[in-house]
Structure formats: structure tokens, C-alpha cells
Amino acid sequence: MSLSRRDFLKYGGATASGVAVGVGVDLAPVEAAAVSLRIKEAKAFAGVCPYCAVGCGQLIYAKDDKIIDIEGNPDTPHTLGRLCPKGAATIQLSNNPLRPTKALYRAPGSDKWEEKPLAWMYEEIAKRYYDTREKHFVEREKDKDGKDVVVNRLDAIASLGSACIDNEECYLLSKLNRTLGIVYHEHQARV
Amino acid sequence: MTTNLIDIQNTDVIMITSNMAENHPVGFQWVMKAKEHGAKIIHVDPRFTRTSAAADIHVPLRSGTNIAFFGGLMNYAIQKNLYFKDYVVHYTNASFLIDPAFKTPTDLAGLFTGYDEAKRTYDRSSWKYQLDGEGNPKRDLTLRDPQSVFQLLKRHYSRYTPEMVERVCGIPKAKFEEVAQLFCSTSGPEKTGTVTYALNLTQHTNGVENIRALCMLQLMLGNIGRPGGGIVALRGHANVQGATDLELLYHELPGYLPMPLRDAHPDLKTYLEKETPKGGYWVNRPKFMVSLLKAFYGDGAHAGNEFGYQWLPKRASADAYSHQHIFADMYAGKIKGFLADGQNPAVGGPNAKLARAAMQKLDWLVVVDIFLTETAEVWKAPGSNPKDIQTEVFFVPAAPAAEKDGSLTNTMRLIQWHEAAVKPPGDVQTDAQFFCTLAHRLQKMYAASKKERDKGFLAANFTYGDKPDHPDMVQVLKEINGFATADITDKDGKVLFKKGQAVPSFAALTDDGKTASGCWIYTGVINETPDGKLVNKAAGRKPADANDYLAHGWGFAWPANRRILYNRAAADLQGKPWSERKKLIWWDPAAPGQKPDDKPGKWVGLDVPDFNAFLAPDAKNGDKPFIMRADLVGGFFGPLNDGPFPEHYEPVESPTKNLLSKQQINPVAKIWKIADQRNELAPVGSPDFPYVITTYRLTEHHLSGVMSRYLPMLAELHYAHFAEISHELAKQLGIENGEKVTVSSPRGKVHLTAMVTHRLKPFVIDGKTVHQIGVPWHWGWKGVPELPGSMGDITNDLSATVGDPNVYIQETKAFVCNLKKGVV
Question: Do residue A52 and residue B415 have CB atoms under 8 angstroms apart?
């Protein structure tokens, strides 16, 4: 393995502070001292672990618009502040050099990504939705008895996801897809 | 989940059918707490895992034989007279009489009445209750009538003897009887038992019947609605529950309202007539549906245009549009554009090789995700040449939960708010920003349209708060919750809710367009005072205390902040707790009653009653706990497409013949035919694919790996993608621990590292040895570049495009494979 401990720190920006269930050695006092220094002057935000569906309460510590620590919230009645290895690694979803922060485009037949401005991306994606909808929208069709009925359906665009986004976002996606006429509309719960 | 993780501590016996210790480790502490209180733990799983290590009894069973096992337990409970008789007689449909024409697999060689072999569907017209002159189901409270559900059930499961369980599942008879005796000990007033399940039960061609069988067992023992009882459904993603409630699913609209079908639901009136039952809480469906249409279409929806109902797309068929349909139809060229938002089907879905080939045929693909997933880079898939792939791909970087406001609904229906701790970096978008900005662009493009079909989309609002591109999530949650669209007054003209004010309960929703609600079951999560102050109950952070072990002040559990569903069943017919030990909700005849007549009496206790709190136990339907069902009782006789009682069939791919009947597989299972040999299936007992394979998850990785393979802290924890192989099978094939092996199926092959272990043992099935291997499915070709072990072949290249006939979930928990030493 070529990755050194220093590289991990570089990746993470900080080490995990959540104590994994089942850790045999009690590192709590050391951790507590380290954490108390690190989170000094940081602001705590209410978080919810984004991994499995137990929904462990988290405390997210941020300073200068950067997350510096994420740990379990001990008040959480159904988890009592614990996090598993995944929950304890949540910080690396944000602080991670593998994470793209620019919109990317891959042209037909191309073997590379190109960085694009957000405005361009939205414009182009909207055009694809618009053109596909205009070309393939089915306003009326025959029902099983051969009667011409209104169906207002768009079969040529499919949508998948997501059990990883918030309720409000799920609702907005349902609203967007259904009002556009999309019926191929699914997410992870199906599989 | 009908219950609550915290309440697991009150159980006497827990039967875990998932791998809870590894997949829901923090929730597992409540199992350990129960154990400290003296509870016994049973673990039913083909593999020995860390859950088994904590259990009193581990019961390995061959994958795909769950119904044989649960049926065996029900048979045991009936034969030994261990069912909870008062509960079964009064709180379930066991006493209801069924149409005399109805026959079961006992009579019809593995089939129920009405099978159409050509269409592979059932005519279900005989699967119904006998009705009296007034249209009510006929009952026999003695349960002796041969046409009673109880007697039919008894006869159906009489074939599921301990000997049969041993032959089918590979569980030795003595072990089965030990487990049956232990779990049936939870029957009766003094004790309760609980059960967990996850994808181990659902990912089968009889997945829904698996869950039904488990629920029926719990009804039989009187375990639903009671402390320490219930069904612990363990969901795999942070918001599987919420995304299901808000219905990112082809067959429904938010709040479990059916998505209209072209042939059945031509107009709103017909839709509401057909979909509104005569009894149970769903009699209110018109209020929920009209309020949803108002939330979608705003002022565009009114009584004069069926509240915009015609704008909703109408499904051409009920057998269409599911996850597996998507990739079958995409491969066939029917789908041109595709949005993958926070989902990675290049790895995560069944027959992943088909999914990748299908995506390579698209005109355009939009991926919104935190990392560059295999789906985003499907044009770089191993074995593909980017030059040959004409798909345009747009990648929009997305923000994780820590960078945005919003709520997630956990596995126990608990809606919890989280706050943005930082702004997303660079051009990273929240998913909400993406949807609203895209909607605004499209509305601009359609602004000049005069077409009727575009009016619904143009009427829909996607602006929440002052900044169109930064939607205010509390305002979105308020729309989901519901609000008055006009002043709502009582009969004396007094204003109950001002126009725009959030309504506090779904009881306030109306079917006349005066309320809008994006998801009726969430109503109550937001409260609003008449002067406009919003209280977001999802953000509530009051811990549990001695008077409230269920912590009603922490978040908001739908519906109505109830923590344990069907809790009327925690009391007996008269409304008294079944026992002091298991009390939860009871009728207090002295409590102050409801206005205006103030007749005393109220349901009180430790939770919000799942019931009209003032409906006395001796009033009409005051003794019926299952309020969401039209008949108000728990259903042994059920409504599914593959039979009213779960029946064991073998998985679509199996090493053995079905020992219970001549019917080898679920007769109505969905099997897709896909061009270019992309969904070949192995015949029964295939010598080319002799081993059973099951797929599963690990503590250190997450699902298709997007949230773990790119994180060094997690990616370093597993040395390589692997297959668990028993010592017996490894010896037979000359495989050493740690060497490379090849696992293949009729769909594909993968190269893995052998993990030779005692955690798996061969099964003896009807006298013959059957080997089973286990393979986790988190790996793909991407990961942390410096950590080669974070990358690996895609397990789902092995699985097939076959599905359950009710919901079209795939069968990835039990299929067949070959295993060879080395890379071949």
C-alpha cells in the first residue's frame, strides 16, 4: 500500500473522532482532549448521518466555512451518540480531494471530461429535456377498448434516485418529473 | 417499521433475519440492551456473522427458502396451539369466511385458484370474503368453519412440517423445533417478540410474500402494536424511507396514492371511486389526492379542471416503468435521456452489465452525485471503447447532507432535520438547487406555449423563499406538510386557518381545494401560528426521559408523531393493557372527553394513540386496531398478485426441485426476455452452475460504494473484493485462502479473492450436499487510486433481470453460479 498516514490526513483534513462500536481499547480520554482542542471556537451544527437508515444524530463542527469535525450527538435517543465506521468517516464526504467541484461535460465519442460553467450546463441540460420531451411526448393514445384518451406521458426520459437526498429534494424531484409527464421514475428502494 | 429501535429493548425474543450487527450497528445496541434484560436472540441467516456471534441460536438456512421456514413456524404455532387466540380471533381476519370457490396449493399442486398459464397471471375473483346481506364479511369466531381464513391457513401450512423444513431449508429438525419453541414462547399477554428484516427477505421473486409471511407470524403470536413487538424493517440508505414516502417510485404519488393508470383511471372521479375503500382511514383518500394536486399545480388546480388531474401522466400498464423495466427498455432503445441523481446503477442494480450497455445507448445522461461514479463514467467501462459511445454525459457535482438544510426520514419513520454546516464548495449544487434551477429554465422555454399539456408544468411552483436558485427548504417542507389555500372557517364563520397557514394535522385536509399538501402522512411536521411563526418539529431535539422513553420531542415520526403503529392492539378488547408488563396505550374511562358533549373517556399512555383517541372500546369499531385496512383487522388472507397466503417456491435459479409442489418457481414471477443473450438463466440443478450464491453488505462499505470507496478512511478497511467460501467447498476445488478465484453465472463473471471460512457451511438439501457462497456487492472499477483494494469487479454482473410479481424487485439474494480456482 503506497498511501502513508500523512496522506490520509491530507485526504481527510482531520481524523475521525466518532468512536466506532466495538473498539476494544478505550481511547475516549485521548480523543476527547484532541477534539476539545480542535473544535475550540468552532460552531456546532445539527447533523444526521447520511449512511444507513438508523439516522444517527451528528454534531458537525465548522470553522471558517470548513468542516473540521463530525461526531455523534450524545443526546440522540435512538443512538445515544454512537457512530459506526461509516458514520465516523462522514467528514471525508466533504473534505476529499477526489471530489469534483466543477460541472463536467463529456461529448459524444470523447475520451475525456471538459469543465463547463454551471450556466452552460443548466442551459444544455434543459435543452436536452425540452427537445426530448417535444419529440417524444404522448398526449393521447388508445386505451384497451380502443378509445382515444388523454395520457400526457413522456416515455423517453427516465429518472433514478435517490435515497441519499433529503425529503424536500425527493418531493421536488417527484413534482418536477410528474409535472413533466415522466413515468420511468424510480429510486434505490426498488432494488 | 411498525415500531421503534428504542423499543427493541422491551422484547423477550428477537428473531433477526438480517445482519443487523454489521449493517445497522448503532441500532443493534438495542438488541444488546434487550439481551441484558434477559431476552433471547435468534439469528436466521445462511452465513455466520457478527450478528450470529451475539445470538443465542444461529439458524443457517439455504438462501431462497424463507417462506418454507416461516410457514414451518406458523404450522408449529397452530399445531401446538401456541397462537394468541384472543388476538387472532378479534384483531385479524382469521375468523372471516372465504368464497367456497377459493382453493389453495394444497389442492391445486402448488397453485391458487384462477391461474392462467398463458398469461402467467391469476384471475383473483375467488380470492374474496363471503359477504352477508349488508355487505359485511361473514365471520365464525370459533374459527372452526372450514372456509374460515384460519382453517384454510391451517390446512395450507400443514404441509410445512419440521421434516419438510429440514429437507427444503437444510435446518436440522431438532434445531428448527428449538427455534420454533423459543419464538412461539412470545405468544400471549405477558410476552412479546420482534423480528427484523432487510434486503435478505425482499430481494427475491417472492420478496413481498416473504415479508407477508413474517407479518403473519407476528399476528399469529399477537406481536404487532405491542411494546417489544412489531416488525423492524431495516432500510439501507439514510432516506430510503423518505424517498419512498415522497414516492420516487413508478407506481405511486407522494403519500402512497396510486399513480393513475390509463385504462382504470380516465378521470379524477373514477380514480377516487376505484381507489377509495368503504372502510378504514383510506376513506379520506380524496382529501389527500386533491390536496396533492393543489400542492403540485397551485392555483392552476381547481374544481373546474379536476384539480389538474388530466395533466398527470397516465401509466399504460401496471407492468411497466420499474427499475428493471427501465434498463430493459433503455437497452431496447425506448429511453433516450436519463437522470441518475445520487444513484449508481452501473454497479448497484441487478444485471449491472445490462445496465451499463443500456446507458451506453442513450442520447444523453445527466449524473448528479458527490463523486464521479461508474455511472458518470460508463463510457470508460472496462471492455468499452469511448469512441464507440455516442452518449453525451453531463456531470453536476452534488453536496452531501452536511452542506445543506433538509430532513431525512430514518428506518423508524422518524423525520430529522439537519443543518448546512458550510456552503458547498466551488460549483457544487444541492439536489434541490439542481431541480429548481432546471425547472425554472424549462419553464422559461415553455413560457410561450399555449398547449394544454404544458399548462400543468407551467402552473407548478418551483420557487421557495426569496432566492429562486437557493430554495428555502423549510418552505418546501411546509408545502409537503400542507397549508390552507384560502381562509378555512367553521360553521359559525370563525377562521380556523388563515390562507397560507400550515395545517397541524391531516385531519384538517379537505377535498374541495382549500388545502394543499405534498404528502399527507407528513402533516404535523410543521406547525404555524396565526401570525406566521413556523415551528419545524423535525428539528426538535428533546432527548428521551423517564416519562417518555419513545422520545416524542426528538424529530417527528409520521403519522402524527406515533412511535409504535397499530398500538390499539397493545390493549385487550375492553381497552385494558394485555398485561402490566406490556402496557403502552389503554382506555381511561375517567379521562376528560371530547368537546362538545364532553363524555368522559380517552385513550392514554406512552405513545400517541393510533386511533381516534375518543373512540371507546365498546363503540362501533372501537376494538379494531388496523385502521389503514378497509376491514380494520390484520390480514392473514392478503391482497398480493401471487397468492393470499405465502407459498414456498424455489428461486428462479435453484440447485434443487421444489419439494413442496410441482410448481418449481413463483408462477407469476416476472422474467424479462432481453436481446443479445443478456439475461440467460440457468436451468434447475444446472451442472454448469452448481452453487448457490447470495450477495450482501459490509459494515465498512456502503451499497454501490459511492460513499465509501472514495473515502480513504473506509477504502483502506478491506484488502480486496472477496468471495466467502466454506472450507468444504474450497477443499473440493483446491482453493487456498487469499488466492484469486473466478465466479460466473449465465450473465457474467467476476474475479475475486477467496476468503475461505467456517462462517459458511454446506447445506444438506433432501439428502444431497448443496454449497453456497457469499459475495458482497460494494465494488466497482473506481475508488481511491492509491488503494487498489478499494476497486474490484462488479458483483451485480452476475445477477439476473427477474422480479417479484408485485413490486418487480430483483432476485439477488439467491441465484446460482460456478466457482473456479484462478483467473479463468
Answer: no
Between CA A124 and CA B441 the distance in angstroms is 10
Asked if B393 and A181 come within 8 Å (Cβ–Cβ), the reply is no
Q: Does B543 touch chain A (CB under 8 A)?
A: yes
Q: What's the burial of B712, exposed, middle or buried (CB within 10 Å: 0-12/13-18/19+)?
A: buried
**A121/B551 touch (CB, cutoff 8 Å), yes or no:** no
Residue A188, all three cell numbers: 434505490
Complex ipTM over 0.95: yes
Task: Name the residue facing A55 among B238, B366, B700 (closest C-beta).
Answer: B238
Cis peptide before B504 (omega within 30 of 0): no
B234 lies within 8 A of chain A by CB: yes
Residue A63 three-state SS: strand
C-alpha cell at B797: 454482473
- What is the pLDDT at residue A38? 75
d(C-alpha A185, C-alpha A37), whole Å: 48
Question: pTM of the predicted model, to two decimals?
Answer: 0.96
The pLDDT, as a whole number, for residue B598 is 82
Burial B559-573 (b: 16+ CB within 10 A, else e): bbbbbbbbbbbbbbe
Would you tell me the crossing angle of helices B473-481 and A167-180 to the nearest 10 degrees? 70
Q: What mean pLDDT comes out for the span B310-316?
A: 98
Comparing CB atoms, the residue among A52, A90, A152 nearest residue B24 is A52
Chain A nearest CA to B317, separation (Å): 10
| Chain B residues within an 8 Å CB radius of A148 | none
HSE of B323 in the Cβ direction (CA atoms, 13 Å)? 30
Spatial separation of the C-alpha atoms in residues B302 and B288, rounded to whole Å = 15
Are the C-beta atoms of A72 and A79 separated by less than 8 Å? yes
Partner residue facing B238 (CB), from A22, A51, A104: A51
Cβ of B808 under 8 Å from any chain A Cβ? yes
Q: How far apart, in whole angstroms, are the C-alpha atoms of residue B187 and residue A58?
A: 38
Distance from CA of A130 to the nearest CA of B (A): 7
| DSSP code per residue over B589-630 | TTS---TTT----EEEESS--SS-TT--TTSTTTT---TTST
Query: Residues B34, B14: contact at Cβ < 8 Å?
Result: yes
* Surface-to-core class of residue B114, CB atoms within 10 Å of its CB (0-12 exposed, 13-18 middle, 19+ buried): middle
Main-chain dihedrals φ then ψ at residue B200, nearest 5 degrees? -60, -30
The residues, any chain, with a CB within 8 Å of residue B595's CB and separated by 6 or more, are none
Window 389-448 of B: residues touching A by CB (8 A cutoff) are 389-397, 400-404, 406-412, 414-423, 425-432, 435-439, 441-442, 445-446
What digits encode the pLDDT tens for the residues B647-676?
A: 999 999 999 999 999 999 999 999 999 999
pLDDT at A17 over 70: no
pLDDT digits (tens, 9 = 90+) for B516-526: 999 999 999 99
A65–B477 CB contact, under 8 Å:
no
Nearest to B647 by CA among B1, B125, B34, B75: B75
List Cβ neighbours of B785 (8 Å cut-off, separation of 6 or more): none
Asked if B437's CB is within 8 angstroms of A132's CB, the reply is no
Q: Among partner residues B26, B380, B406, which is closest to A21 by beta-carbon distance?
A: B26
